[in-house]
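@here heads up, posting the sequence + SMILES for the NAP run so it's all in one place. Ping me if the SMILES looks off, I pulled it from an old spreadsheet.
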Amino acid sequence: MTKIAFIGLGVMGFPMAGHLAAAGHDLTVYNRTTSKAQSWVQQHGGASAASPKEAASGADIIFTCVGNDDDLRSVTLGDNGAFAGLSKGALFVDHSTVSADVAHQLADLLAEQGCESIDAPVSGGQAGAENGKLAIMCGGSDSAMDRARPVMDVYAARIVHIGGVGAGQTTKMVNQICIAGVLAGLSEGIRFAQASALDLGKVKDAISGGAAQSWQMDNRWDSMTQGQFDFGFAIDWMRKDLGLALEEARRNGASLPTAAAVDQYYAEVQAMGGNRQDTSALIRRLRKSGESN
Ligand SMILES: NC(=O)c1ccc[n+]([C@@H]2O[C@H](COP(=O)([O-])OP(=O)(O)OC[C@H]3O[C@@H](n4cnc5c(N)ncnc54)[C@H](OP(=O)(O)O)[C@@H]3O)[C@@H](O)[C@H]2O)c1
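bot reply: prediction finished. Complex structure tokens:
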């Protein structure tokens, strides 16, 4: 049994912390909106803390799963931040999708306190978090991974140690670049099939067994063809992630013309009110044949 602090009980963090509690660990949770922390404790037991600092106090491992770089800084740094409550030797594991820069910045601060960290963004969405089937891409030392892996195992289908600090976040950028291109192609393919008046179920049957198959095709074809988008991975989050990738590309010199174009397409879908809709709502900007707008 490990003494664990879990900070950020959103769509992802809430079920992930639940898996840790179910595995018998001793959990203290913190969430900015306290009602979520209270409802988590009602469902899973454990304790809730009044600040990230209080949650981290005495913990062997501190997990975070919040939104962006600023959110991560606000729960870790400052007088009430988790780092103010760390015991020497504690391990910090961040599951948020943030920049590799902030991962380095926090790792440097932690090293001064005699602590290690892992940047460990996840893929697999809400369903992956709830079913304990996330893919976790990690940056950090071998010794930190040895401590974190058996604990993270309870909500992971796959844990890959990519390299040193920042390598997990950079890998997540690769993941998002790939998804952007796949969804752009899938959107055009579906609209083309509709314009040709093909039977969409039969088209999916035929092509999902071949080289065009993808997770997005398997899991989003039906909802895209039915125009259902109020679930899943929010476009606001995807734009944050593509922004991180485009920023990193300016540094590493990689060329990302498709990711840059899809990022702008998402801006159009946001302007249509799609901020919280699933990333598959990319198809909304492509008119159905016969539609005037
Ligand atoms: N949802 C997905 O499918 C998915 C998949 C892979 C990766 N991710 C990544 O995982 C991370 C979390 O995503 P999510 O879907 O769980 O987000 P979410 O449901 O919006 O939850 C965000 C969590 O962060 C907390 N938070 C945000 N800003 C904060 C601040 N300034 N101070 C303190 N707490 C703050 C929120 O607290 P409140 O409750 O008070 O708002 C909430 O607990 C993001 O980086 C996202 O990109 C998400």
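MO: Residues 167-195 form the longest helix (29 residues).
MO: One more: The pocket of NAP is lined by residues 8-13, 31-33, 36, 65-67, 71, 74-75, 96-97, 122-123, 125-126, 233, 237 (CB under 6 Å).
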